[in-house]
Design goal:
The chain folds into two domains: 192 residues, 2-enoyl-CoA Hydratase, Chain A, domain 1, CATH 3.90.226.10; 47 residues, Lyase 2-enoyl-coa Hydratase, Chain  A, domain 2 (Orthogonal Bundle), CATH 1.10.12.10. Strands 1-2-3-4-6-9 form a six-stranded mixed beta sheet, with helices on both faces. A three-stranded mixed beta sheet has the order 5-7-8. The model has no long low-confidence stretch (mean pLDDT 96). By secondary structure, it is an alpha/beta fold. The chain has twelve helices and nine strands. Strand 2, helix 1 and strand 3 form a beta-alpha-beta unit. Bound molecules: 3-methylmercaptopropionate-CoA (MMPA-CoA). 3-methylmercaptopropionate-CoA (MMPA-CoA) binds next to helix 2, helix 3, strand 5 and helix 5.
Length: 260
Amino acid sequence: MPYLTTELRGDVALICLDRPEKRNAISDAFVEELNAAITWAEAVAKAGVIHANGPHFCAGLDLAEHVRKTPFEGVHGSRRWHEVFGRIQRGRLPWISALHGAVVGGGLELASSTHVRVADTSAFFALPEGQRGIFVGGGASVRTARLMGVARMTDLMLTGRSVDADQAERWNLVQYVMPEGAALDKAVELATQAATNAEISNYAIIHALPRIQDMATDDGLFVESFIASFTATSPEAEARLNAFLSKKAGSKVAKPGSNE
Ligand code: 1HE
């Protein structure tokens, strides 16, 4: 794979964006590689991490390729991003992204399709589409807007300004801010933890939560009760519930910062 490298660490699949000379700009071929890597990850792992090689996480859409496209080719390209990023957001695995340097345009859209975002202090976030005379096309109007809110996204797009990792954390774009160089280790740690959950719980978490958020209150509560009841009938749930009830070591909720 010329644009990606992959690695399996225990139950965690790592996908590394590896086109550093072009700042991991995403071309059509890059999207297809990402699609193939997701298929691989779903076959071998219980959780995944997306990270990047080079000084930046991702400079977004490959503008050199995009400038040669007709408008309709652009529509197909955008729809393909939606399909492939949709496999991250609503696939089989929980995905954690480890972010550093530029996380801009389509790079932020890719990060927004993952379930947990870990940034290091070098990370900066922007949506420069307005400056390029284009619009977001990799899902930001849906996913990124839901994370940071429409007012903040409108501000970023109108002004073209960047926000740093601390601001991104306050804006709900990222959930963890780590010292420079430490995002990948933290992402692998979180993914390793998520991989120990019951598969059906992880599936419900990543599929049901965003859907329920889009529902009316009453509909969401109704759907929640069925998912809660269905997941509890699995043999795995029974074993895990009994482990707690029989006071099995490590089954208690740990206090923040402790490993108990
Ligand atoms: C690229 C791209 C790219 C770099 N497409 N080639 N994205 C943007 O508008 C961001 C454009 N990129 C930048 O602002 C900067 O490159 C960075 C801040 C990300 C990094 O700066 P720097 O100084 O580390 O690198 P550089 O010297 O600007 O770029 C190194 C090379 O990568 C250079 O190519 P070279 O052949 O001259 O060495 C750049 O041209 C190339 N490069 N970014 C193509 N994006 C589905 S819709 C999504 C819509 C969007 O994503 S719009 C936002 C696009």
